[in-house]
Amino acid sequence: MSGSLLRLRLIPRNVCVAILVVYRAVISPLYGDVCRYYPSCSSYALQAIQQHGMVRGIWLGARRILRCHPWAAGGVDDIPEPQSRLATTRAGFVLARKEQ
Question: Membrane-spanning regions, if any (predicted)?
């Protein structure tokens, strides 16, 4: 797949990343540390979208939010291991990994 086509396909994923980054910077601090799981639900969704893509990442994030309720045991809940060949910038945006 050509580099420019891959960059175009990553735009929706990066839009979701931008929305979650803004949420985590502006809204999440207002709630404080209330999540029963580690990482927090918003961090889990962000990592899932970055590593698994928009559709599967949103699915994984939604499932995690549904599990996060007052009667949940909580604990460490990492995202499934991805099989991706993509890189993530320091800001969290997803780029095509440069071939060596």
Answer: none
* β-strand partners of 95: 87
Rounded to 5°, the CA angle 77-31-41 comes to 20
Q: Is the Cβ–Cβ distance between 89 and 57 less than 8 Å? A: no
> Chain centroid to CA 63: how far?
13
At residue 38, φ and ψ (nearest 5 deg) are: -125, 130
Residue 99: pLDDT above 60? no
Backbone angles phi, psi at 50, to 5 degrees: -60, -40
Name the pTM for this structure: 0.80
C-alpha gyration radius of the chain = 15
CB 60 within 8 A of CB 48: yes
Residue-wise pLDDT for 38-89, tens only, equals 999 999 999 999 888 899 999 999 999 999 888 888 889 888 887 667 777 8
